[in-house]
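ok, trying the design again with the full structure, not the truncated one.
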């Protein structure tokens, strides 16, 4: 019972989150959901709003690195959630990752810089 029910609930949860993300567009509820993962991945661009407007990864939410701890609750309050952070080259996202880890978000990951990431992930430019 536990395994089947858990698998079914994970499947439903993943697809519900994907539907919410599509419905919300580029709002703070945007979620990047991995097809192979049962849990959502929150993709955060920590660059300035101007940099974000010039191009960003599809599904990303823009929270400036200096405001990450104050505003991450608008995206998720789950401190075990996987959070992927990026900036232009990886420096600001590293700073944001450290701040989130200090705030208790243990699955925050610095995935690097936008220019490199846009070679392997969908981007708006």
């Amino acid at each position: 019972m536990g395994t089947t029910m858990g698998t079914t609930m994970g499947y439903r949860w993943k697809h519900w989150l994907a539907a919410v993300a599509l419905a919300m567009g580029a709002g703070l509820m945007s979620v990047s959901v991995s097809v192979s993962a049962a849990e959502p991945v929150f993709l955060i661009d920590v660059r300035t709003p101007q940099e974000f407007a010039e191009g960003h990864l599809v599904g990303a939410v823009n929270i400036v690195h200096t405001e990450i701890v104050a505003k991450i609750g608008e995206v998720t309050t789950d401190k075990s959630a996987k959070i992927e952070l990026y900036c232009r080259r990886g420096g600001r996202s590293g700073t944001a990752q450290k701040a989130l880890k200090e705030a208790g978000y243990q699955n925050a990951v610095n995935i690097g810089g936008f220019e490199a990431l846009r070679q392997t992930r969908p981007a708006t430019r």
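Keeping the full-length input from now on. The chain has five helices and four strands.
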